[in-house]
Amino acid sequence: MSSIHSCEVRVCRWNFVLEDSNNFPRKCTEMTTRRTKPVDTVKNQTPEVHSTRSSGRVRLAPKRLQYSPETREEHPRKKQKAKSQTEKESLTNKLKYEEDVENDDVEHNSDGRGGLSAYELERLENIRQNKAFLSSINLFQATEDLKQLTRPKPSQRGLRPHSSVKEVLPPRKSLRLQKKEAEMLTLPPEPRGTLVYEQSSTIKKPTGPLPMNPINMEEGFQLPAELPELCSEDTKERKMKLDLKTYCSALKSMAIADDGVVKVVKDRIFSAAFHPCSSRLLMAAGDKWGKVGLWNFGADWDDDGVLLFEPHTRPVGCMAFSTAHPTQLLTLSYDGSLRCMDVEKAVFDDVYDIDDDLKTFAFMSHDCSTLLVGNWYGEVAIVDRRTPGNSHKSLHSVDPKTLRCVSVHPLQMQYFAVAESRVVSIYDSRSLKKTKNCAVSQLHGHTKSISSAYFSPCTGNRILTTCMDDHIRIYDTSSVNTECPLLKSIRHDMHTGRWLSKLSAVWDPKKEDCFVVGSMMRPRRVQVFHESGQVLHSFMDSENLNTVLSVTAFHPTKNALLGGNSSGRLHLFSS
DNA sequence: ACAAAATGCGGCC
DNA sequence: TGGCCGCCCTTTTG
């Protein structure tokens, strides 16, 4: 019994907060996870132990704690439910009465008033008025519309939801049946600070090339021959000068195809990219658990053309196909590794590996051999992939605080922009020191942290930023090393909350002055803006687009757009 | 059908 | 600067 007793003691040190400052009941997720300082009022209660898990954590029946019969207080949500229930009932009754009135289905008496008292007549009059009111506000239409709003089932294409094999456990026999004495069990110590998770899931993959074995296919699966062929296709960039009108009509011609929503990775998408080839649409996406999915739209291999790999163990924060060697996809992960998938060699090669959390990277030369890699703490490394070994790492402390994004000037590649907490700084890589670097220019005006900052794709004359202060900004960087004035500031809701990736506005590589960004607006949509702030197009689709697409990217040459959501599904818009 | 859980993170004090 | 607060978004699981 002593172990149970210790359970109670431990449990009583937690105080479950059920209401927020607005007196709204908090979600139970928070109810069961939030712990605050000891509170005397709960100390002497004996909470009901609901269940214990293998982790040794104890779960309570929280409702009993706060809304016990003693307090005679109902759970607020229950109350609300009960209220709406009565509302519903009275409405149904009212409707029934109406029917009765309409059908003249009321008992009549001989006195000409149908034998009804003044009160009942008044009631019938009320019913008539209610009916007139209800039809005037189109209530019945509204209920129909509401029914329509219920979300359709997400696409079941791509990775199958239940592909994991259940572990077969040896048969168990209780100690009592074995006629043995009960063991004295002790609870593990309460975790301190952040929870400690199983090492195995957060440990990095071993260094050295990892073979490209798709984890969604049978063992010994050979990569489709189509893949290296596609990837080595000539992808010479065609810089088209599109006028705005043509561009807009191209946007309007794009839509999600019937089979254009596919589960490409298992978990929430952190990064995604289009392969530059034009004969097919080939996409890659990286998720929260280090998985990388390749999706060849319309391919006939299993899982609707999806191959799933596992080159990392933590979120794949950034990825890009090499424009110089399109058989290569570079993937960077928070686990501190940067790898290069090569479909010709069928491996994920090591590019950079460090005991820090990496955040982002960008190509720093046209041949894609030099990379600019940034970690979370404001340090950048210039990595030359042609130089083997560790000597090619050079860390420069740019800002000791935070780093969210790096972007290299497309023409003058010595200049790069770094989004550092509340300012974007532009540095010259030729004059970088170990510490305390001076920016050649800075972009001011952000009042909260900046999620991303990108040079415009063709000239580098603009920088597009996305900031947590709910604004997208465009700066004029045509003279990088002097002043860079703010051109436009566009309001955009960036409140994605806990379970979604952050939004980022990204340029269309085909169009110097247009960009795309996901949106929180309902119905769900993806918006394309002109740098003037004008919304050129909103992609909406009640059938196929019902979630927030946090990660978006345009195809470098074709009329195609991808959007990734938090369930690992890619959405393909094309014409 | 429904409820609860799910391996943050930026902002602010 | 450490730690608390509040997102209210989506999907999976039981």
TrEMBL record:
PROSITE patterns: WD_REPEATS_2. The keyword Repeat applies. The keyword Repeat applies. SMART domains: WD40. Residues 31-40, 84-98 have a biased composition (Basic and acidic residues). WD repeats lie at residues 443-479. Belongs to the WD repeat DDB2/WDR76 family. Interacts with CUL4A and/or CUL4B. This is WD repeat-containing protein 76. It comes from Kryptolebias marmoratus.
